[in-house]
């Protein structure tokens, strides 16, 4: 191995072992560390600027994900760098879907929803959760003690009272004019370079420190919902990395199945769609989750919006190939979701743009880790929070919102949930709670690997034997 790596160092060619240039990445065989100690640092520095964006992305993950996922990280890392696994979502709108079902089982796959339903029954039996307790039938508002927030009018009134209240005035200690002067010069302990400041900013945006937020987020239990009866998806067993053939119009009038990451179905399952629901898909394109919602056959009123024309046209294509034509119960429009304010819906899906961990590790195209897209990347948590806040505002009191991403970034997952709730508490009269959906773990344990240490939502971790995700899902209920 060693002479081979020496050759890489001198020629700069790509390592066949790790897929990436040995000059930029620690190689699994550890020879690079050895070479580095022998005085090759300069070459590393020289190549720093020309690193592929995928390598920047991996280095970023090494720095910020490794401390979070610890001993799980090497397995997650290799899984992210490996081809992901797909499921086949059965198309209920196809006229001959029994034939498609048979075709899929003949391939060696199984209907994962059937298995999940059995696991749900077992879980309920164990937890004895079928019995609706008296307490859970009470209105949620009566069970939750929300921290009191000053309303805007109260703040104004208090301001007036304080103006007349001499005692309160005396308590205010003027800072200027006592021991310090406005003209005192206090030298900073250290002057940071632009690069250091940027690094600090990147670290702030990439990590989630809930000690900085003031509002405690309430997490409540709900009864384990039924799994959608008509949603069927087929997967190869754990450890089997066979691929599905591309769907063809072989059976019936429309495409028989849609290939997608099975973990992307969890946000739709968590939404628990019911007939008569009025549903908003706030970031809908290119439409994988929209199609999954349609497959539940419970979308009598579905509004899909996205701000990208080109991605919306893909949603329309999917609708044409799988449904035939856009159903009259579904509307599709190009809009900025952040501007929505009116509570028209009782189920809202907010599937936000995110780091897209898999994409940034394998493709240079449209890579968020391009230096030119740094600002966009650093703005993501803010953008995600604004979309989630708009989703919650669009939801009627009593309705639910599901927030999802396909990143492992704690800042873009739990961090955004907390920041949105903090914002709503301070800036509006809206009250929200997080709904505990940890029941997804025992129900889907045969298909997905979940991270046990999230704070609010559930996170599917990619593993080699079950290479789905990453997918973060959090369910929020609007109370007021
Ligand atoms: N839900 C989609 C699916 O399952 O196929 C994937 C959604 S993708 C992760 C995020 C989408 O959000 C992108 O299509 C992007 O155009 C859209 N988006 C970004 N900012 C938006 C905004 N302000 N309003 C509406 N859509 C937005």
TrEMBL record:
<dbReference type="GO" id="GO:0005762">
    <property type="term" value="C:mitochondrial large ribosomal subunit"/>
</dbReference>
<keyword id="KW-0808">Transferase</keyword>
<feature type="active site" description="Nucleophile">
    <location>
        <position position="406"/>
    </location>
</feature>
<comment type="similarity">
    <text>Belongs to the class I-like SAM-binding methyltransferase superfamily. RsmB/NOP family.</text>
</comment>
<feature type="domain" description="SAM-dependent MTase RsmB/NOP-type">
    <location>
        <begin position="191"/>
        <end position="479"/>
    </location>
</feature>
<dbReference type="InterPro" id="IPR049560">
    <property type="entry name" value="MeTrfase_RsmB-F_NOP2_cat"/>
</dbReference>
<dbReference type="InterPro" id="IPR023267">
    <property type="entry name" value="RCMT"/>
</dbReference>
<keyword id="KW-0489">Methyltransferase</keyword>
<dbReference type="InterPro" id="IPR001678">
    <property type="entry name" value="MeTrfase_RsmB-F_NOP2_dom"/>
</dbReference>
<dbReference type="GO" id="GO:0003723">
    <property type="term" value="F:RNA binding"/>
</dbReference>
<feature type="binding site">
    <location>
        <position position="351"/>
    </location>
    <ligand>
        <name>S-adenosyl-L-methionine</name>
    </ligand>
</feature>
<keyword id="KW-0809">Transit peptide</keyword>
<keyword id="KW-0496">Mitochondrion</keyword>
<feature type="binding site">
    <location>
        <position position="306"/>
    </location>
    <ligand>
        <name>S-adenosyl-L-methionine</name>
    </ligand>
</feature>
<dbReference type="GO" id="GO:0008173">
    <property type="term" value="F:RNA methyltransferase activity"/>
</dbReference>
<dbReference type="GO" id="GO:0031167">
    <property type="term" value="P:rRNA methylation"/>
</dbReference>
<dbReference type="InterPro" id="IPR029063">
    <property type="entry name" value="SAM-dependent_MTases_sf"/>
</dbReference>
<keyword id="KW-0694">RNA-binding</keyword>
<feature type="binding site">
    <location>
        <begin position="283"/>
        <end position="289"/>
    </location>
    <ligand>
        <name>S-adenosyl-L-methionine</name>
    </ligand>
</feature>
<feature type="compositionally biased region" description="Acidic residues">
    <location>
        <begin position="156"/>
        <end position="167"/>
    </location>
</feature>
<keyword id="KW-0698">rRNA processing</keyword>
<feature type="region of interest" description="Disordered">
    <location>
        <begin position="148"/>
        <end position="167"/>
    </location>
</feature>
<protein>
    <recommendedName>
        <fullName>NOL1/NOP2/Sun domain family member 4</fullName>
    </recommendedName>
</protein>
<keyword id="KW-0949">S-adenosyl-L-methionine</keyword>
<dbReference type="Pfam" id="PF01189">
    <property type="entry name" value="Methyltr_RsmB-F"/>
</dbReference>
């Amino acid at each position: 191995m060693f002479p081979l790596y020496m050759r890489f160092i001198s020629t700069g060619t790509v390592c066949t072992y790790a897929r990436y240039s040995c000059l930029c990445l620690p190689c699994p065989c550890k020879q690079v560390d050895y070479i580095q100690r022998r005085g090759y640092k300069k070459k590393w520095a020289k190549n720093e600027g020309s690193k592929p964006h995928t390598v920047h992305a991996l280095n970023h993950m090494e720095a910020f994900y490794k401390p979070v996922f610890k001993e799980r990280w090497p397995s997650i890392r290799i899984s992210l760098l490996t081809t992901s696994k797909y499921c086949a979502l059965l198309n209920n709108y196809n006229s001959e879907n029994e034939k498609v079902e048979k075709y899929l089982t003949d391939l060696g796959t199984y209907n994962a929803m059937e298995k999940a339903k059995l696991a749900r029954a077992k879980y309920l039996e164990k937890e004895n959760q079928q019995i609706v307790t008296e307490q859970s039938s009470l209105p949620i508002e009566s069970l939750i003690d929300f921290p009191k927030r000053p309303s805007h009018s109260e703040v104004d009134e208090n301001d007036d009272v304080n103006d007349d209240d001499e005692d309160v005035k005396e308590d205010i200690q003027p800072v200027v004019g006592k021991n310090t002067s406005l003209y005192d010069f206090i030298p900073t302990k250290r002057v940071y370079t632009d690069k250091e400041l940027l690094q600090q900013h990147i670290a702030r945006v990439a990590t989630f420190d809930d000690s900085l937020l003031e509002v405690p987020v309430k997490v409540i239990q709900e009864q384990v919902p039924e799994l959608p009866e008509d949603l069927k998806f087929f997967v190869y067993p754990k450890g089997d990395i066979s691929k599905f053939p591309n769907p063809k119009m072989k059976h019936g009038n429309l495409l028989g199945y849609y290939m997608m990451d099975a973990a992307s179905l969890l946000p739709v399952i968590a939404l628990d769609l019911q007939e008569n629901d009025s549903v908003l898909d706030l970031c809908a394109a290119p439409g994988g989750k929209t199609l999954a919602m349609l497959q539940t056959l419970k979308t009598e009123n579905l509004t899909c919006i996205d701000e990208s024309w080109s991605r919306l046209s893909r949603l329309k294509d999917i609708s044409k190939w799988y449904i035939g034509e856009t159903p009259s119960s579904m509307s599709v429009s190009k809009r900025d979701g952040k501007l929505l304010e009116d509570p028209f819906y009782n189920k809202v899906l907010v599937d936000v743009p995110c780091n897209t961990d898999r994409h940034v590790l394998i493709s240079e195209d449209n890579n968020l880790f391009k230096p030119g897209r740094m600002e966009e990347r650093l703005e993501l948590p803010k953008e995600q929070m604004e979309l989630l806040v708009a989703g919650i505002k669009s939801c009627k009191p009593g309705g639910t919102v599901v927030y999802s991403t396909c990143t492992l970034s704690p800042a873009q997952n739990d961090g955004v949930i907390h920041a949105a709730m903090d914002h709503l508490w301070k800036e509006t009269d809206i009250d929200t709670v997080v709904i505990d959906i940890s029941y997804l773990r025992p129900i889907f344990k045969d298909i997905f690997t979940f991270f046990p240490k999230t704070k609010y939502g559930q996170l599917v971790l990619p593993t080699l034997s079950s290479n789905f995700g990453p997918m973060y899902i959090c369910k929020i209920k609007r109370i007021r």
